[in-house]
Amino acid sequence: MEFGIEVIALLMAVAFVAGVIDALAGGGGLLTIPALMAAGIPPVAAIATNKLQSSFGTASAVYAFARKGRIDFRRFRKPALAAFAGSALGALTLQHVSPAFLSGLIPVLLIAMVVYFALAPKASEDDRHSRLGPAALVGLVAAIGFYDGFFGPGTGAFLTTALVALFGMGLVSATAHTKFLNLSSNVAALLALIVGGQVLWTLGLLMALSSVLGGQLGAHLALRVGARVIRPLLLVMSLLLTAKLLSDPANPLTRSVLGLF
């Protein structure tokens, strides 16, 4: 596929903003996947290309957090492996699902993400006692990893909230470890989608450059102010992009709703 300079510049700008949001709160894919699909890219290729650019951005954020000593790699080694395995399975499943089905499903999942972000309780900045043990952490991360490989948007927010609500981590610490887990799941899904020939390399690498810069800025902001300021922006952008997808008369979900009248 070929794209004009204006479209590429716009997608790079979206990737930068998504990189910032991902490092702060997760959910940057809520911006990049709909933007890629709005540019005319089929759903599976959009998800695959998003995995390429977001993997670079997430790696950038992991590096920034690790430099500050905020990631316990030993404790999270097994959960990271679980995220990798779950995501690889999710990405393989994705490639056997009808693209038409995904075109209708993605707006539904986006709306579900909006409801989640709107209703989820605010995370604490203080460490508390974990409610669940290491085995539960591995299982939960594997399940979220599967979701990340299959779809992706909101994975970071799900992981961060789980680490805070169920495993007693403070907000910044949970955000830092989420980036490590998310990097593992991103790489697994990316490898599976590369094998499937789904990645748009030139566009993905250009977006990756912006994502890296955004990830560095987002990690810096996360260490200073936390993720709370991102939620209102994420809600607004998610709703706008969902409306954009559903405004396409060819979208299966739109056709189904219109067929009722």
UniProtKB/TrEMBL annotation:
It comes from the Bacteria. GO terms for cellular component: plasma membrane. It is found in: Cell membrane. InterPro entries: TM_pro_TauE-like, TSUP. The chain crosses the membrane at residues 7-25, 76-94, 100-120, 132-150, 156-176, 188-209. Keywords: Cell membrane, Membrane, Transmembrane, Transmembrane helix, Transport. It is a multi-pass membrane protein. Pfam families: TauE (PF01925). Its main location: membrane. Belongs to the 4-toluene sulfonate uptake permease (TSUP) (TC 2.A.102) family. This is Probable membrane transporter protein. It comes from Lysobacter enzymogenes.
